[in-house]
């Protein structure tokens, strides 16, 4: 781990992992609180590193201190929610691969608590290292395998890290101006920061230079569509949608953002676009058909409870009240508060 001023989070993280690992290596980049004191309680080996605005350097320094054959990397604002220890130990004994773990990140969007889910390479043999100032990536040709390890991440909830992340991403782009990964990440940061014009600027370029075989291609397209939605650039958004129908057809969040774009377009000019209303229903039904079991890097709910709820809204506004109640109830079964509140109001 690399840490700085994490006294609020560190205990929860280490409680979730200290019985599973052989050693805990913590590299501190300048804490002024009780972070080191807390780490010592867990028997951690603590090292100091002078922060140089380069996450890969700090990560690699921490890996250099490890004495183990395998390394599991966590951040202090993460904690293990679930782990299949039999699979975990078999992987360490029998595999020559990189383990990807599921990370559920809590964030605030449109006034609601939401979770994104993606698989990140975090368990790997001792000789592998990182590159990249920010959103650092492992340098390795080893195969990657998803493991039954679920980690909850709270770092982006009510925390704006744009002031730290954006300058580092701009530096990376200064050295590699057409790198689609950093263009995507910078566009995403500006979107989180609600600077949609700058988000579009970088996502425009990102989309132009994407080849289509990138691991993050689908996520970049979804991000781009959300920025275009906020800016009400419908012509561009539907062009992007049409260009990616085949490639993204099996992602629930692709059909979810299409439904949101259709809804905004109809509300903006009902007279011209009201004939598209039934397409909204089709989009949400497709979301439910796809579900979320096989999807990586999506917002949780786009394949179930949020799609159920939005279908309820659709049916209620089109005077199909029996169907509306049915889908509100399906959404409420997931404890989705907007659905619960809507049912209470209807009663």
From TrEMBL:
Q: Which domain of life is it from?
A: Bacteria
What InterPro entries does the record tag this protein with? Glyco_trans_2-like, Nucleotide-diphossugar_trans, TPR-like_helical_dom_sf
| Alphabetical UniProt keywords | Transferase
GO MF annotation, one: transferase activity
Glycosyltransferase 2-like domain: which residues?
Answer: 1-99
Q: What is this protein called?
A: Glycosyltransferase
What's the source species for this entry?
A: Halalkalibacter akibai (strain ATCC 43226 / DSM 21942 / CIP 109018 / JCM 9157 / 1139)
């Amino acid at each position: 781990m690399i840490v700085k001023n994490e006294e609020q989070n560190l205990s929860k993280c280490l409680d979730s992992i200290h019985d599973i690992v052989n050693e805990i290596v913590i590299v501190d980049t300048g804490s002024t609180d009780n972070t080191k004191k807390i780490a010592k309680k867990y028997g951690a080996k603590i090292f100091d590193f002078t922060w140089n605005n380069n996450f890969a350097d700090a990560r690699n320094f921490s890996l250099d201190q490890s004495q183990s054959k395998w390394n599991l990397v966590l951040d202090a604002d993460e904690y293990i929610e679930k782990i299949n220890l039999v699979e975990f130990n078999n992987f360490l004994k029998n595999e020559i691969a990189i383990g990807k773990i599921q990370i559920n990140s809590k964030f605030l969007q449109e006034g609601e608590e939401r979770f994104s889910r993606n698989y990140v390479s975090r368990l790997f043999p001792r000789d592998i290292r990182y590159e990249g100032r920010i959103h650092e990536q492992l340098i390795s040709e080893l195969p990657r395998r998803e493991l039954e390890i679920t980690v909850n991440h709270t770092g982006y909830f009510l925390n704006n890290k744009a002031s730290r992340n954006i300058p580092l991403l701009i530096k990376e782009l200064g050295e590699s101006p057409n790198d689609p990964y950093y263009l995507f990440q910078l566009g995403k940061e500006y979107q989180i920061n609600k600077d949609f014009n700058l988000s579009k600027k970088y996502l425009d370029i990102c989309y132009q230079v994407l080849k289509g075989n990138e691991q993050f291609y689908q996520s970049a397209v979804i991000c781009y569509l959300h920025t275009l939605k906020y800016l009400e650039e419908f012509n561009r958004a539907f062009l992007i949608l049409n260009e990616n129908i085949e490639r993204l057809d099996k992602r629930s969040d692709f059909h979810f953002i299409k439904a949101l774009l259709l809804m905004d377009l109809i509300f903006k000019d009902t007279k011209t676009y009201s004939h598209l209303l039934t397409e909204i229903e089709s989009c949400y039904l497709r979301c439910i058909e796809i579900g979320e079991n096989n999807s990586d890097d999506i917002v949780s709910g786009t394949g179930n409870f949020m799609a159920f709820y939005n279908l309820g809204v659709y049916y209620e506004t089109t005077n199909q009240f029996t169907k509306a109640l049915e889908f509100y109830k399906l959404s409420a079964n997931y404890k989705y508060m907007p659905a619960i509140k809507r049912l209470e109001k209807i009663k």
